[in-house]
């Protein structure tokens, strides 16, 4: 394990944090300590942001060719180190090899996509004007310094989906990965870009204890944007702070995603997608399915076949490439998931498949006849519990789907594609997929939620705009006449 993986990365220097605590980063399956590192304090945050502010001013002057060259070298380095990086993620995050490899490809895709957007920073849009002889130019400019707070469940991808477009735009970034997945969400990214020749200070990595530093990273005067992935509660708090300080936010928050099987659906296709939608990364995915709504025509068949498939999903130690369901990230999450299952039993949901705890692993639970208003149906579970709900009509299921504070992702299955698109558009969610899983991302498509699921987007032209600001420059080519 590289010595860099136990260090902060501030202004191009690998060093220990200056905080009071030493954190033990453990494998969630067997509690083996992977690395120990001293956390950062407010002085370290100051230093990281100051370095980023200074570096950003110079990096903003870089040419398109210079930015593309760094990003393409990063792509090459990522490809060369794929096996190492995937192995680290499996050990540190408890991911299966399938999930870790998928996350690696999403992170790599984020860097490749960023290369495509560099030129747009140097090519203004030109519009005609109402005033004779005037031409309007609209330029994209770097937004400045970005503070990125990265969640534990997809740390490499989430770090890269901020760092790569920030570099393309001419920004600088300070990344704060979750301490539980510090290596995957921070040092690996910094190491790649350092080797790729990125100037010092453009990317910085710190980790800290909120009890010691509070909201200092968010309220610090340097960052103009705070990018956060995590719970809706934390997102609301960050949004309030950013509003107070007039900072922009990009927030990907919780989800209570719905998967709908209409009367005319291909049931085999739906069940295949349903199993993936629920149990990818042990259910620890913001866009995994929480609620399965199944038409009465298919209901009992779906319940039986889904439960049988859930029994067959391999679980255990994800160092075995065949394992799909690994450990939940920590003891608190294990207890939360098991508590939700116990409440579902008390609420009268039909227990079709009972899971069990094996160390940090929770095996699949499947509940049918779930009350749409129950805790089970209204909570982002972040674990391998499936809730299945019957419906009779299209109007009924649309009302049930939208009866949640969240609006992140969704799926609808039907053999009538026009009907599927109409249904998808009626979902109160940022993303909905016809005849596919709720777990989808495409580097050219905007990724984000509605309602309590977030503000802003990642990916695509729309996502890239989050890392830029616009400037209107008008050019008066002919002498203008004024009324006085």
Mean pLDDT: 97
What percent of residues are in strands? Answer: 15-25%
Number of strands: 22
From the helix content, strand content and strand pairing, which structural class follows?
alpha/beta
- What helical percentage do the residues reach? 25-40%
- Strand order within the widest sheet? 14-17-18-13-12-19-20
Instruction: Return Rg in Å.
Output: 24 Å
Distance between the termini: 73 Å
Gross geometry: globular
> What count of helical segments does DSSP give?
17
Low-pLDDT residue intervals, each spanning 5 or more residues: none
Largest sheet: 7 strands, mixed
Q: In brief, what are we looking at here?
A:
Helix content is 39%, strand content 22%.
Q: How would you explain this protein's 3D organization?
A:
This protein has 484 residues and is an alpha/beta fold. It is built from 17 helices and 22 strands. The chain has helices spanning 42-59, 64-80, 82-93, 97-117, 155-169, 182-185, 187-195, 210-213, 216-219, 232-244, 267-279, 299-311, 331-346, 375-378, 394-401, 417-426, 460-465, and strands at 8-10, 13-15, 22-26, 33-38, 125-128, 134-142, 145-150, 172-177, 203-205, 225-229, 248-252, 257-261, 289-295, 350-353, 357-358, 361-362, 365-368, 385-391, 409-413, 431-434, 454-455, 468-476. The strands form six sheets. The chain has a seven-stranded mixed β-sheet with strand order 14-17-18-13-12-19-20, with helices on both faces. A six-stranded mixed β-sheet has the order 9-8-7-10-11-21, with helices on both faces. A hairpin with a 2-residue loop joins strand 15 (357-358) and strand 16 (361-362). The protein starts with 7 loop residues before the first strand and ends in an 8-residue tail after the last strand. The model has no long low-confidence stretch (mean pLDDT 97).
